[in-house]
Amino acid sequence: MFTIANKSRIQPKLTIGQPNDRYEQEADQVADQVMKMSTSQIPSLQLKCAKCEEEELQMKPLSKTIEPIIQKQEEEPITRQGNRDANQQMALSQLCNRTFTTSEEAQRQSIYEGFIRGLTGVNSSVERVIKISMCRFSLRQLSKMSRAGLRIWTHGSVPSVFEGVVQINSRGGSASYVRGIRTIFLRETINTAWLTHEMAHAWDHIRIIPRRNLVRLENLNSRRRRRLILNPGNYLSETSRRQNIDRIGARRPTRMTFDRMFQNYRRRVPRRELAFSQGSRTGYSMTSSQEFYAEGYTVFQGSFIGQQAKLYNYAIELYNFLNNEANREQMPTPNLNAVIQEARQLPRARPI
User: Fold this and answer.
1) Could you tell me where the DSSP H helices lie in the chain?
2) Which of 4, 42, 116, 315 lies deepest, with the highest CB count within 10 Å?
3) CA 228, CA 224: separation in Å to the nearest integer?
4) Which of 157, 175, 153 is nearest to 167 (CA)?
5) Which of 115, 109, 112, 107 is nearest to 182 (CA)?
6) What's the rounded Cα separation, in Å, for the pair 289 and 261?
7) Cα-to-chain-centroid distance, residue 243
8) Residue 335 neighbours by CB distance under 10 Å
9) How many whole angstroms from its chain centre is CA 286?
10) Would strands 243-244 and 183-186 be described as parallel, antiparallel, or unpaired?
11) Is 178 helix (H, G, I), strand (E, B) or coil?
12) Nearest-CA neighbor of 194 among 215, 176, 214?
């Protein structure tokens, strides 16, 4: 605690002692003893008082004092940038309900920018829908689609590189995949289920494109580009290739074509309204083997357990195929116990 000195106090007057008094004699005796001591006997002396050292530090050039401050100011934004990246990663993990490494997050961002290359006016809502849909595919799947030049565009126009080569029908749903030009077209109204469905079509197509053709079409000469546009290849779901439909671990896996899975599904569903589907598209999965796969993929990677139960109950072969695929791609899978419990509440599948 600090107190203020009393100004009314009077300092007494100093007095001068008599010559050769006892204090002066004592001082002379101490001086004589010091002069007779050897150098080694003299105690070490402090050459600089603390105040002197402080004054010397204050007299150092300003550059040596400013430099650490400048370095600190340069380092702080880097630290804040690192924290911001960590926050962005956390937000993406919450958005996708998954955890991504910084490297994978950067790769996904790069793939996203490749998907929308040349497209202007992408607002935050559309960006959010696209990125959430991308979360339902593994990095390997997205990378392969990116190498093939998958593009997300808007209805009403085509990328300039394809002008005069293809014409887009203005009719259709909220999104559609055109495999000839490897492009997904979006309408004004779009949600993650519809876009995931079209991206599943893109994956169904691109996954079996020969490696030599896994290139962006705009990077090819006009002759080769036109040839690939006119001959885009098949969807895996419409080929005669047999797929493993048993759960992982089976000794002798059963194999079946997508068309056979699709036909079994159509026979099992008691009523059209019991078909697995997203939103208001009742029975959409019963139209073709391609829609069967794309809608099944969307349901399997979605969050509606009721639709997943229908997929499990009436299309067990496709459910197992998607489960095996998700495990290979290290993707999340539905809670099987919850799906089975929900499936028990559904009407029995018709025998085939």
Assistant:
1) 22-36, 50-58, 62-96, 102-115, 124-134, 139-147, 192-206, 222-230, 258-268, 289-300, 305-314, 316-328, 336-343
2) 315
3) 6
4) 157
5) 115
6) 8
7) 31
8) 12
9) 34
10) unpaired
11) strand
12) 176
d(Cα 329, Cα 135) in Å, to the nearest integer? 12
Q: Are 234 and 258 in contact (CB under 8 A)?
A: no
Q: Rounded distance, CA 61 to CA 304, Å?
A: 69
Q: What angle do CA 234, 115, 215 make, to 5 degrees?
A: 50
pLDDT, tens digit (0-9, with 9 covering 90-100), for 5-37: 444 444 444 444 555 555 556 656 655 555 555
pLDDT of residue 95: 74
Nearest by Cα to 297 from 194, 176, 155 = 194
| Count of positions (residues) in the chain | 352
Cβ contact 276:286 at 8 Å: no
Query: Picking from 33-37, 40-44, 65-69, 278-282, which range would have the lowest pLDDT averaged per residue?
Result: 65-69
Please tell me the distance from the alpha carbon of residue 78 to that of residue 180, in angstroms, as a whole number.
45
Q: Please check whether residue 145 is in contact with residue 203, taking contact to mean a CB–CB distance below 8 angstroms.
A: yes
Report which DSSP code applies to 172: S
Chain centroid, CA 31 distance in Å: 82
Amino acid sitting at position 24:
E
The kind and range of the H/E element at 154 are: strand 151-154
Compute and round to an integer the Cα radius of gyration of the chain.
Answer: 39
State the chain's maximal CA–CA distance in angstroms. Answer: 132
Q: Which residue has the higher pLDDT, 88 or 320?
A: 320
β-pair partners for 346: none
